Amino acid sequence: MRTLQVDLGDRSYPIYIGQNLLNDPQWLRPFVKGSQVCVVTNETIALLYLDRVLALLDGLQVSTVVLPDGEAHKTLDVLSTIYDRLLEDRHNRTTTLIALGGGVVGDMTGYAAASYQRGVDFIQIPTTLLSQVDSSVGGKTGVNHPLGKNMIGAFHQPNAVVIDTDVLSTLPPRELSAGIAEVIKYGLIADVDFYQWLEQNVERLMVCDTDALEEAIERSCQNKADVVAQDEREGGIRAILNLGHTFGHAIETAQGYGNWLHGEAVATGMLMALDLSAREGAITAQEVERLRTLLQRAKLPVVSPEDMTEQQFMDLMAVDKKVLDGQLRLVLLDQVGAASVTNQFDVENLKQTLASI
Q1: Residues 120 and 41 placed together within one structural domain of the fold
Q2: Residue 61 belongs to what domain range?
Q3: What is the pTM of this model?
Q4: What is the pLDDT of residue 145?
Q5: Residues 162, 178: one domain?
Q6: Pick from 149, 108, 348: nearest CA to 242
């Protein structure tokens, strides 16, 4: 079992990574401070793991909320069903919410916890690779709006993140690939040695090799924890975690949430970011092809949707959260293993990238 720490002073919390964690209450019960718990999950995960988690909570007042599965349901209307249950069952300020699911469940549960009675505790139990390496760590919570992804939300850190790698055995191959996209991101922005490791081991991840998964999850979470500890609320360096996301969020919004998985959109978005970085002279065209090859080995898309126009991309990116004073800012590579946020790029180069990927 591997343990990491997200260092945020008195709000620091552990990340536990290992097998069989959902059969042992020691990874969960110490972080439930009151007698009330609300477990939020979705229809798919409830059938697989809800009973196992409820068994860990024996003796507590436990409520459950089972959401519909999918990004299309990450809305304010669906979020209200969590508040409804909390109020109906009279949960007070000492309650703890538990997010049992992927990124959608984690984001929505976290936002409910951030806003219910102005903030209650919550615990993340991520069940997809993408949520294990990305959305469960760092305290970003929220829901989508028809005009923009994750535009309504709050920063609210969990009490703990419990990552049981055994749950990945039930993950569909497409979801596994989507998670690998976020894993690759960490190598590109902060850890060139990890990027090289991924090039050597991506096929092991694709077949859910336990040792390879635990290594990839630990190194991804460590990279994210290091960045979050420096910049919790994305005032500076944390924005590099969004490599490819401005392009990717535009794809998700245009295609309808859930038609492209988040990791799939980020994969194509990262390729766009590297293509623009190359056009700006920061990296070589060979590095763009190096990423394209790795994404293809991970069964990820490397071409944007055929029906998306350049103008659609520009319009949707204009409402991205990184836009500041009307200026579009993008995460670009300075070199493999180092990224930065900038509005200093040639718009013609951006247009060429949008036309070519």
Answers
A1: yes
A2: 2-170
A3: 0.94
A4: 92
A5: no
A6: 149
- Parallel/antiparallel/unpaired status of strands 161-164 and 13-18: parallel
- List the chain residues with pLDDT less than 70: 321, 325
Give the rounded percent of residues in the chain with a pLDDT score beyond 90.
94
Check residue 320 and give its pLDDT. 76
From 116, 135, 170, the end of a domain falls on 170
CATH number, domain of 202, equals: 1.20.1090.10
pLDDT in tens, 244-275: 999 999 999 999 988 999 999 999 999 999 99
Residue pair 217/163 in contact (Cβ under 8 Å)? The answer is yes
Q: What is the 3-state secondary structure (H, E, C) of 148-193?
A: EEEEEEEECCCCCEEEEHHHHHHCCHHHHHHHHHHHHHHHHHHCHH
**132 and 190 together in one domain:** no
Domain final position from 148, 170, 192: 170
* Interatomic CA distance for residues 124 and 102, integer angstroms: 10
**The pLDDT value given to residue 258:** 87
Is the same domain home to 60 and 180? no
Tokens 């924890």 found at: 225
Contact criterion met (CB below 8 Å) for 251 and 265: yes
Position 325 scores a pLDDT of 67
Per DSSP, 50 falls in state: I
Catalytic machinery residues: 118, 140, 182, 224, 234, 238, 242, 245, 249, 262
Measured from the Cβ of residue 307, the count of other Cβ atoms closer than 10 Å reads 8
Q: What's the number of domains the chain is made of?
A: 2
| 108 and 163 belong to one structural domain | yes
Residues 206 and 160 in one domain: no
